[in-house]
Design brief:
The complex is a heterodimer.
Chain A lengths: L1 H16 L5 H24 L8 E7 L4 E6 L2 H20 L9 H20 L3 H22 L4 H29 L7 H5 L7 H18 L8 H8 L2 H23 L4 H6 L1 H21 L3 H22 L2 H32 L10 H4 L1 H14 L6 H14 L7 H27 L15 H19 L2 H18 L4
Antiparallel strand pairs in A: 1-2
Helix pairs in contact in A: 1-2, 1-4, 2-3, 2-4, 3-4, 3-10, 3-14, 3-19, 3-20, 4-5, 4-10, 5-6, 5-10, 6-8, 6-9, 8-10, 9-10, 9-13, 10-13, 10-14, 12-13, 12-18, 13-14, 13-17, 13-18, 14-16, 14-17, 14-19, 14-20, 16-18, 16-19, 17-18, 17-19
Chain B lengths: L14 H19 L3 H24 L16 H26 L5 H20 L3 H19 L6 H31 L19 H17 L8 H8 L2 H27 L3 H24 L4 H22 L2 H27 L11 H4 L1 H15 L5 H16 L3 H27 L12 H19 L2 H10 L4
Helix pairs in contact in B: 1-2, 1-4, 2-3, 2-4, 3-4, 3-9, 3-12, 4-5, 4-9, 5-6, 5-9, 6-7, 6-8, 7-9, 7-10, 8-9, 8-11, 9-11, 9-12, 10-11, 10-16, 11-12, 11-15, 11-16, 12-14, 12-15, 12-17, 12-18, 14-16, 14-17, 15-17
The chains are: A mainly alpha, B mainly alpha.
């Protein structure tokens, strides 16, 4: 019931949004819709875990062994919550952005992408998952191509082709697994039983069909080349969706549809993938230090953070797995905060070049304080939410028994955290402190709507940072369940 | 259902064949009786509607006449459903683009007559049970098509296309005849019936295998599979666009249904002997169709290559020949025909056939652009459109056999390439500025039909079983 509503509300309101024909109405409409979704998502949190309201299962394609089946466990709850929280924040934060042309279409497409994302996180049927996986992409394609920056068409196209290749390979992978299921079913239950049916040899190559799609989405080095361009060229609201929620699709895919289904394949390639992760983390951090464009800097920092989460999945430890689930939420919230600040700066000064900015703290003190909190969360300082997440991640990687290189991975990953402090603090210093120049002299402090959003984000950062227990409780059972399926020794 | 029984081969379900032949003659004479184009067009529309109803009556067990066919034809749901798709697509094509047919030349009545004769051939090809009927059907389809291709008499390209098509087409027909002769010679019972062709002997005679290969080549030619596709771009480009639309959809998918029928019934048991050839043809078709389409400047030519690429996907069904493949080919026929007819209908109204001609269409004609987007997404195989499930069934059919996984992976990579050229049209319509537009403001009826097509495609993309319901219940007992 609740998962169905979470998908249907943005879907229906989004389709209706195409007919509003008025920018102001559409903006209000989309905010209202996303708030309703948020309320329903919060309602879902209050229910007991075995409540029938948290699941739905309807016949869809009986001949194909696929059902419209959705459900919420710890993992999907936390990610659907992230989706539900992000969209109202994005709509409020970009309230003053204006979009050329038929701007009501912009809001309608945003809601459709939310529907797709919700579907991805809630589906418990592999074909349905694939359906939503693609559907989340189409609205984003139109959003970026229509309202993005100068090079938008070519860049978005690269992004689209990249992810489309990945998802088609994933489709073949899912079909191959499906064709081996004894009961001809796409259900999660049947897929989770495949570990003993598919031979180890097959698992080893099937792994790549699925993992390529997820690695492109995350993105993992060396498949990340679409990401900085796309983040840079997309309209800010869409960049927020992409980086706060959409990259989590890749991590989610590995946890839900890859690691428990092909545990031997996952284990066999664990070191290879982990190696790519740490190379990517160091590489992205070094590149981030050199960036002059704020959006590109955050884009590269995101690659580094996601790399760490991916590393922890392959560590196959409980604290690592819980850390990933919690950190997916935290990273979404934190990076949203970063983007909102970038959006503010760009709207007021017309530039994103760090070299052209300076002295913003004098002009916008409230913004500066809020940003510092967000930025500190980005470098995982204690008392912030990311500290909890990254602490769990690191302890998970360090104690991993699935690899013999756990110490190396931990040390190199730790290095990237130091580098992340370098570029984040450097960015704050150059943008917010120092002398003002002609561009930054007219900057005013943040307005009410932006204040609300940033205070909410800072509130979430500190709340989870100080009192992580609800999050830990929520993810514990699911993490244990996934790990029991991932146990390659059985 | 009544047509499932053993007597399906004897009692005749010939409504479609009779009706299409008779109506073709009526159309020929309608040009003498009246010179009003509206009357002629409406007569054709009535004829097509009757054909559709007649075919449906066949499926329900009501027949115009009972004729003993001596197992020359075999009427099962697969073939009859294929007929329905062909007739319904033609009806939609005429409703959408009937007016554009008038612009081709003065002989409107004859064009419609030829189309009905083609449909007569189509109903033979989809339900044949004897190689002679197959040959007859293919020829009845081909000869009117040669004429239709050259119907724009004052256009040099049209003339060239017709001649090229005729020369190459007759050559492939010759090969087909030779193949049939070989098969007849190799047949243990001295019979043309497809279900009696295969020798249950362990060793396959060279005569039989070369017969199969000759038929494979000539049928590949007809469905424009590589490397026998060279006529396709020139013919599709040179023919009047409205007939290109007809050839690329209805004719092609019907021949495909015959193709599958021939290889499944005739040589299904010996699949291991010829599968590798089909696999090579499939891979070549996918590769050449998709890669060449990328470099086209004209949307019409791009669609010609895209039709080759789509044929490559349909060939996957020929490779696997499972129940899923047969369902899939029906779904593919419907999804592909609907989308392609829609795009061609829009293309016909455009001032400029190049990609630039579509620039900024979304601003001037938002509805045309939106429906065209749905058609293109369907051809690219994006979920929520019929094209996704069409491709899904094709891939699934090969995956379920457990062989040729490399071909499946190759096919999806080619599908990713196809996104490039389909999305170029979307980009032009939505994200580029320009004065692309239609020649005249399209009528409300035209727009309504486009919306209907788009809705049908989405329905197929959410509930593919709406179409396949009849088929699934019996396909495995076939």
């Amino acid at each position: 019931m609740i998962p169905v509503l979470l998908i249907l509300i943005p879907l229906v309101t989004g389709l209706a949004g195409f007919f509003l024909k008025n920018a102001g109405t559409a903006r209000g409409w989309s905010l209202l819709s996303s708030l309703v979704t948020l309320v329903i998502s919060l309602w879902g949190l209050t229910l007991a875990k075995d409540s029938p309201l948290l699941h739905a299962d309807v016949a869809w394609l009986p001949d194909l062994g696929s059902r419209f089946s959705v459900g919420m466990d710890g993992l999907s709850t936390i990610l659907s919550l992230l989706t539900a929280v992000s969209f109202p924040l994005i709509f409020v934060a970009t309230w003053r952005d204006s979009y050329r042309g038929k701007s009501w279409n912009f809001y309608a497409l945003m809601l459709l992408s939310q529907a797709g994302l919700m579907g991805v996180f809630l589906a418990t049927d592999a074909l349905l998952f694939y359906f939503f996986w693609e559907l989340a992409l189409i609205p984003v394609y139109f959003l970026c191509s229509q309202w993005g920056g100068e090079r938008r068409i070519a860049v978005t196209f690269k992004f689209f082709i990249y992810t489309f290749v990945g998802s088609l390979l994933m489709l073949v992978g899912l079909l191959l697994i499906y064709s081996k299921t004894p009961d001809h079913s796409f259900s999660m239950k049947s897929f989770y039983a495949m570990r003993s049916v598919i031979s180890s040899k097959d698992q080893v190559w099937l792994f790549w069909l699925l993992f390529t799609a997820f690695a492109i989405k995350m993105p993992i080095w060396p498949l990340h080349t679409w990401q900085p361009d796309t983040y840079e060229q997309s309209p800010n609201a869409t960049t927020m969706v992409l980086s706060a929620v959409m990259v989590k699709m890749g991590l989610f895919g590995v946890i839900r549809w890859l690691a428990p289904v092909l545990p031997v394949g996952t284990w066999a390639w664990g070191d290879t993938v982990s190696g790519a992760c740490i190379i990517g983390m160091i590489y992205a951090s070094l590149v981030a230090i050199k960036q002059d464009d704020l959006k590109r800097l955050i884009a590269y920092s995101s690659i580094a953070h996601v790399g760490l989460m991916c590393l922890a999945i392959f560590a196959t430890t409980e604290s690592g797995m819980q850390g990933v689930m919690i950190q997916m939420f935290n990273h979404g919230i934190n990076i949203l905060g970063m983007w909102i600040v970038v959006d503010l700066i760009e709207r007021q000064t017309g530039t994103r070049k760090i070299s052209q900015l300076g002295g913003l703290a004098q002009k916008a003190p409230v913004l500066a304080i809020l940003l510092v909190v967000v930025a500190l969360a980005n470098v995982a300082l204690p008392l912030t939410n990311a500290f909890i997440g990254e602490f769990l991640l690191f302890s998970g990687v360090f104690t991993s028994t699935a690899t013999q290189f756990s110490v190396v991975f931990t040390v190199v990953a730790g290095l990237s955290i130091i580098l992340s402090a370098v570029y984040t603090l450097n960015m704050i210093q150059r943008v917010f402190y120092g002398n003002t120049n002609t561009l930054t002299a007219q900057v005013t402090d943040i307005k009410f709507n932006e204040k609300v959003v940033l205070v909410a984000i800072v509130g979430l950062i500190l709340f989870v940072g100080v009192y992580p227990k609800p999050m830990l409780d929520l993810t514990k059972e699911t993490a244990e369940f996934i790990l029991s399926k991932m146990n390659y020794k059985l | 259902m009544p047509n499932q029984g053993d007597d399906a081969g004897n009692i005749i379900y010939m409504n479609a064949i009779l009706l299409s032949a008779i109506w073709g003659i009526i159309m020929m004479f309608s040009g003498i009786v009246t010179s009003s184009k509206t009357v002629i067009r409406n007569t054709a529309i009535i004829g097509l509607a009757l054909l559709l109803i007649g075919n449906y009556a066949d499926m329900m067990g009501y027949h115009l006449a009972k004729i003993e066919v001596h197992k020359m034809l075999y009427f099962d749901t697969f073939g009859l459903l294929g007929n329905s798709i062909a007739f319904a697509s033609t009806l939609l094509l005429v409703l959408l683009s009937g007016r554009d047919m008038e612009k081709v030349g003065p002989n409107l009545a004859e064009y419609f007559a030829l189309i009905f004769f083609v449909l007569c051939g189509v109903s033979l090809v989809t339900t044949f049970n004897s190689l002679l009927m197959l040959f007859l059907g293919i020829e009845i389809i081909s000869i009117p098509l040669y004429i239709l291709t050259g119907s724009d008499k004052k256009n040099l390209k049209s003339n060239e296309a017709a001649l090229k098509y005729f020369l190459l087409g007759s050559f492939s027909t010759g090969l087909m005849l030779l193949g049939i002769a070989f098969l007849y010679g190799a047949s243990p019972f001295g019979s043309f019936a497809v279900d009696e062709l295969w020798t249950p002997k362990p060793a396959v005679s060279p005569l039989l295998l070369s017969g199969i290969l000759l038929l494979l080549i000539s049928m590949s030619f007809k469905v424009s599979a590589a490397p026998f596709h060279f006529w396709t771009p020139d013919v599709y480009d040179g023919a009047p666009t409205v007939f290109t639309s007809f050839m690329a959809t209805i004719v092609k998918v019907s021949i495909f249904i015959g193709f599958i029928r021939l290889f499944d019934e005739g040589f299904g048991q010996g699949a291991a002997q010829w599968q590798i050839f089909v696999a090579i043809i499939t891979a070549a078709t996918l590769f050449i169709g998709n890669i060449t389409a990328v470099f086209q400047q004209s949307v019409k030519r791009m669609l010609a290559y895209s039709s080759i690429a789509q044929a490559g996907f349909m060939l996957l069904g020929l490779l696997s020949l499972t129940g899923i493949a047969k369902q899939g080919i029906i779904l593919y026929a419907a999804a592909y025909s609907l989308a392609t007819i829609g795009i061609f209908a829009i293309l016909l109204r455009m001032k400029d056939y190049t990609f630039e001609g579509f620039n900024g269409l979304a601003k001037r004609q938002p509805l045309l652009a939106a429906t065209c987007t749905i058609f293109l997404l369907s051809l690219a195989g994006i979920p929520l459109t019929g094209g996704f499930f069409a491709k899904y069934y094709m891939l699934m059919s090969v995956v379920s056999t457990g062989k040729y996984i490399w071909l499946v992976i190759f096919a999806v990579l080619c599908a990713a390439v196809s996104v490039y050229y389909y999305f170029r049209v979307i980009q032009a319509m939505y994200f580029k500025d320009g004065d692309g537009g239609t020649e005249a403001e399209p009528s409300a009826g035209f727009k309504g039909l486009l919306v209907l097509l788009a809705v049908l495609i989405v329905v197929l993309g959410v509930f593919p079983q709406a179409l396949l319901h009849q088929l699934t219940s019996m396909i495995y007992t076939w």
